[in-house]
Amino acid sequence: MRLQEGARSLLVRGLWVNLLNPKAIVFFLAFMPQFIRPAEELLPQYAVLGATVVVVDIAVMLFIFAACARQFQRFTQSERGQRAMNRTFGTLFAGVGVALAVL
């Protein structure tokens, strides 16, 4: 049995995952101050920079999703395809982990 999750539920879940992602938080704490002028008002600067990052991220993710959705559809619709995709990406992640540990 396959449950379909609504678009609103997916959006809310994605929003929470991104807002609470420690990697993203650390990235923005390191990245954003480089582009802020302390002598000027901070809130408008952070708002413009934050909005710019969000718009670019959404555009890139939509483009990547649109470009890859059809190719991955055949994997996601069968249990065998999902298993193959999980193994492939799991192997890639493990390989990156080993490479990081070695380097």
Strand content: under 5%
General form: extended
What composes the largest sheet? none
Order of helices and strands: HHHH
Unreliable segments of 5+ consecutive residues: none
Protein model, in words:
The protein is an all-alpha fold. It has a domain at 7-77. 80% of the residues lie in helices and 0% in strands. The chain is built from 4 helices and no strands. 0% of the residues are buried. The model has no long low-confidence stretch (mean pLDDT 87).
Task: Note the topology.
Layout: H1 7-19, H2 22-31, H3 42-76, H4 79-102
Quick synopsis:
By secondary structure, the protein is an all-alpha fold.
Any descriptors?
103 residues; mainly alpha; 4 helices
